[in-house]
């Protein structure tokens, strides 16, 4: 895995040096020590930290000392990825090429900050879907941000995060920059004593705006991570819930006072005009509301909390007049939900997870918002799969949210092909995954050739019916050897515990070292095969793997094939997840090569494209022309390596 460039910290605090971690050098207490409430000491008391020499305007009446109680929770994405400052060598331009940059604003404000600020100014309503019909709220945010650097850093971070997710060629760079700016914003915020904000309601205004943007940033980070098992997805979600709820603790008891500040535009104009909220809304949540009231596993406090959550979700489903109204309500969801519900979600209580499924449908209602996309569909599939494994009875709890999603999918061309993934898993279809038996070898070989039939490379390598028949015999014998070897990496899916094989996955790893790459070994001696294309592909694939992961131990996903009669039901996804679960336990990356047609599927599982290769092969048509065949190299990292 490539690492970002790093500049050694030589003036860090003693605690960070002792623990061999990077210090951001914020004085009098660095963010690492502030977050975990350690005693922060520096060996160079006369040296000013970068934040003390920043060209950013200082907060009004900033207190000279910082007690330990001033710390707030820091999102994992911010605390785990601190980006060091880099020395600028050229004038940067947005959206062209990555450029060196002193991104933590430890020096004077530079052209990159100005570009991010301009991007926020001109895209405010898109970046942060706080419906603002006349720009009044945007003006307030900008005016307050120019007085309070922690808020300024936060909006710059959001601008950078937006650029990282909306087609910029420098997406990785802007992602890292967003983390850095948000981390510095939290560092500045932590430098205040909470009592400073309690001195007047006006001083709580920037806190309110900062907490809202920070929560939005945390939601963005949570939705962007789709590469873990269900427990990891759930832990990330509850972490977001607690962060967004916790940061607003300083506003407790002062909401009505905010109406007397410049934020009155929010309460008196924006909300009444854009949010038509009524407790007598639609019936989308009626089914689960009745199930919650009659569930014997919930106490009265939980029933009340869950009912309130469903009321808020119904507001999202009913929101008018457009998707931004829904998006704002959804982004405020974490603030409104009661603590008993968050506790139940964190404990993975099935009833709470079923309610959560409606939250994921609400996310899909807001799929046009740049940070949401198809995350709702992905997360609903994840929770539905988990519940169906617990007990088939939970499938009935998910019939309504799955139906709501299916009703939306036909009108969404980007997700129609995945409609069955959610419905099949959510409805608890009996897909069994296990080691194959020797009797399954022929079936696995047949599925391999049928599933790969649309791949032009297969027909370039085996151009005649006779060569394909020879390939079938070869694959059957090879699969039989793999089945007999308990150390081989092969699993099959069945249509029910005793049903027919519907798909298979093959892989290699340190624990499964056999070579299952099709183009290697005795296959090149099969009669009728085109050895040239076998050898060329094998060479290109190995060179790409060497560039991508080198000699580092990893899993290599060789084949994921589903019988065409069973495709579109999420079987390939389930098989791949089984391998990812093993790799997570071993703390190893997973590498694969994929055609363009399957890239989006692997991306939803958390894989990232890091390289590619291509070769010229004959087309399948009668003209036998030459086409360019291309595969992308993708890597998935376990949570311990991210």
TrEMBL record:
InterPro entries linked: Acyl_CoA_acyltransferase, Fun_TF, GNAT_dom, Sterol_Uptake_Regulator, Zn2-C6_fun-type_DNA-bd_sf, Zn2Cys6_DnaBD
Region (Disordered): 41-74
Domain N-acetyltransferase, residue spans: 431-633
UniProt biased composition (Polar residues): 41-55
PROSITE patterns linked: GNAT, ZN2_CY6_FUNGAL_1, ZN2_CY6_FUNGAL_2
GO MF annotations in UniProt: acyltransferase activity, transferring groups other than amino-acyl groups; DNA-binding transcription activator activity, RNA polymerase II-specific; zinc ion binding
Sequence ranges assigned to domain Zn(2)-C6 fungal-type in this UniProt record: 12-42
One Pfam family in the UniProt entry: Zn_clus
Keywords linked to the UniProt accession: Nucleus
Name of this protein: Zn(2)-C6 fungal-type domain-containing protein
Organism listed in the record: Apiosordaria backusii
Lineage per the UniProt record: Eukaryota, Fungi, Dikarya, Ascomycota, Pezizomycotina
């Amino acid at each position: 895995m490539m690492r970002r460039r790093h500049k050694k910290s030589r003036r860090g605090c003693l605690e960070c040096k002792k623990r061999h971690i990077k210090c951001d050098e914020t004085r009098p207490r660095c963010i690492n020590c502030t977050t975990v409430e350690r005693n922060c000491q520096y060996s160079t008391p006369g040296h000013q930290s970068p934040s003390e020499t920043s060209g950013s305007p200082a907060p009004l009446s900033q207190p000279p000392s910082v007690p330990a109680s001033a710390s707030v929770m820091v999102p994992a994405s911010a605390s785990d990825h601190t980006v060091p400052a880099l020395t600028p060598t050229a004038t940067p331009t947005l959206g062209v090429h990555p450029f060196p940059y002193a991104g933590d604003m430890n020096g004077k404000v530079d052209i990159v900050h100005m570009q991010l600020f301009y991007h926020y100014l001109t895209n405010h309503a898109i970046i942060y879907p706080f419906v603002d019909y006349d720009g009044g709220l945007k003006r307030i945010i900008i005016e307050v941000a120019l007085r309070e650097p922690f808020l300024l850093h936060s909006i710059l971070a959001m601008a950078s995060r937006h650029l990282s997710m909306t087609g910029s060629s420098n997406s990785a760079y802007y992602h890292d920059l967003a983390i850095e700016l948000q981390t510095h914003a939290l560092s500045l915020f932590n430098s205040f004593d909470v009592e400073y904000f309690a001195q007047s309601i006006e001083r709580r205004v920037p806190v309110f705006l900062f907490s809202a943007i920070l929560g939005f940033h945390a939601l963005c980070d949570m939705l962007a991570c789709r590469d873990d098992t269900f427990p990891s997805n759930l832990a990330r979600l509850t972490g977001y819930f607690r962060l967004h709820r916790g940061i607003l603790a300083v506003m407790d008891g002062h909401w009505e006072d905010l109406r007397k500040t410049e934020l009155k535009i929010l309460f008196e104009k924006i909300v009444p005009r854009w949010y038509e909220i009524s407790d007598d809304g639609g019936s989308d949540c009626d089914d689960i509301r009745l199930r919650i009231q009659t569930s014997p596993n919930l106490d009265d406090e939980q029933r009340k909390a869950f009912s309130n959550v469903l009321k808020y979700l119904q507001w999202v489903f009913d929101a008018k007049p457009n998707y931004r109204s829904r998006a704002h309500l959804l982004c405020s969801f974490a603030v409104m939900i009661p603590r008993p519900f968050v506790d139940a979600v964190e404990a993975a209580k099935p009833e709470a997870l079923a309610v959560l499924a409606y939250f994921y449908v609400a996310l899909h209602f807001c799929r046009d918002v740049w940070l949401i996309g198809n995350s709702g569909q992905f997360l609903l599939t994840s929770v539905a799969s988990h519940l169906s494994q617990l007990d088939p009875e939970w499938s009935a709890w998910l019939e309504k949210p799955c139906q709501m999603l299916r009703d939306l999918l036909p009108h969404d061309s980007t997700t129609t092909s995945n409609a069955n993934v959610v419905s099949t898993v959510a409805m608890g279809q009996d897909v069994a995954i296990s080691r194959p038996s020797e009797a399954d070898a022929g079936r696995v070989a047949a599925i391999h050739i049928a599933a790969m039939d649309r791949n032009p490379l297969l027909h370039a390598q085996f151009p005649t019916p006779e060569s394909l028949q020879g390939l079938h015999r070869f694959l059957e014998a090879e699969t039989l050897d793999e089945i007999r070897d308990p150390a081989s990496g092969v699993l099959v899916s069945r249509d029910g515990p005793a049903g027919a094989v519907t798909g298979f996955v093959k892989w290699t790893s340190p624990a499964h070292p056999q070579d299952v790459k099709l183009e290697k070994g005795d296959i090149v001696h099969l009669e009728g095969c085109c050895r040239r294309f076998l050898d060329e592909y094998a060479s290109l694939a190995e060179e790409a793997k060497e560039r991508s992961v080198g000699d580092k131990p990893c899993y290599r996903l060789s084949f994921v094939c589903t019988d065409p009669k069973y495709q579109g039901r999420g079987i390939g996804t389930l098989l791949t997840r089984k391998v990812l679960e093993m790799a997570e336990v071993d703390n190893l990356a997973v590498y694969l090569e994929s055609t363009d047609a399957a890239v989006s599927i692997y991306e939803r599982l958390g894989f990232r494209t890091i390289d590619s290769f291509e070769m010229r092969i004959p087309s399948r048509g009668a003209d036998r022309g030459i086409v360019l065949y291309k595969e992308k190299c993708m890597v998935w990292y376990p949570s311990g390596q991210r």
